[in-house]
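User: I'm writing a tutorial on reading structure tokens. Could you give me a worked example: one chain, its sequence, then its tokens, then a sentence or two explaining what the tokens reveal?
Assistant: Sure. Here is the example chain.
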Amino acid sequence: MNKQKIRWGVLGCASIAKRSVVPGIQGSQFNEARAIASRSLDTAQATAKELNIPVAYGSYEELINDPELDAIYIPLPNQLHKEWTIKAMKAGKHVLCEKPIALTAKEAEEMLLVSKEMGVIVAEAFMYRYHPRYEHIKQLIADGVIGDLRLIKGSFTFNNGDGTDNVRFVKEWGGGSLYDVGCYPISAARYFLGSEPIAATMQAMFSEKHGGVDMMAAGLVEFPGDVSLLFDCGMWAAFRNPMEILGTKGRIEIPHAFLGKSEAEGNYYIHTDQGVEEIKAEYLDAYALQADAIARAIYGEQPLPFPLDDAIANMKVLEACLQSAENGTRVTLNP
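And here are its predicted structure tokens:
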């Protein structure tokens, strides 16, 4: 049976929308990008033309109230995530919101209540984990291929430190490297371990040149069973995004854990006493896979793989990490 495609509206013309998410929606099986909005109609029209989107709006309100739309993608700055996600939900729309889902876990919990009230689906935009290689890696761990887990290491850094005019440099708006990219290794470790952390200890470089936000952070996140995540994140360092999962009998190396621009960059490696096995990952658009997973949930065919409860849990860890970095203390998390 042919399904009607999920009709998406895009709330803003951010580069991530233009570069990755909209092309992913357009290249997916069950979705179409139907409308885009900006607070400038000229900008919306120019972007719509560039991306071959049929409808352009000069206000966010017009877009979320369009009865022809089923779902809204929100790539707005972090401090606007809660406000516009709730407005979109109250207009009866499903939502894909950029990470982090909100500024605090409490905000995310408020969003969850509205989603239940309105009967709509809300997803946090961590596209990397929709690629089947992550499910395969988790199965390798469960099968004991690398023995008992001992440690997970992860990094996500890039360099935009030369600039000073960036929403990522406004502390009150959820700026800083932890919220921008530290959320990735945290979410991946939680996924691989299938449990929630019990404590976090962080050190960070807070740069007055960049609004006092954490431009680099590194630390330890403790999980049950004496397993930890060692990770670092930064917006003022050379680009890298690897992960390593260490066990008693071997390790799994993911050189490009979150972003990869070619087929080879999706490959990962199993290191054991028998040698090194390269696992070739099929090149798939994770943004398209993410859109189709949301569509299947909207159709009622499959539950959303990562519901809003997961986003709330990730926010709790992020808050603990930031608190630890700011206060120089070990911060415990409630179970």
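What the tokens reveal: The first strand starts at residue 6 and ends at 11. The chain has two domains: 6-125, 131-287+315-332.
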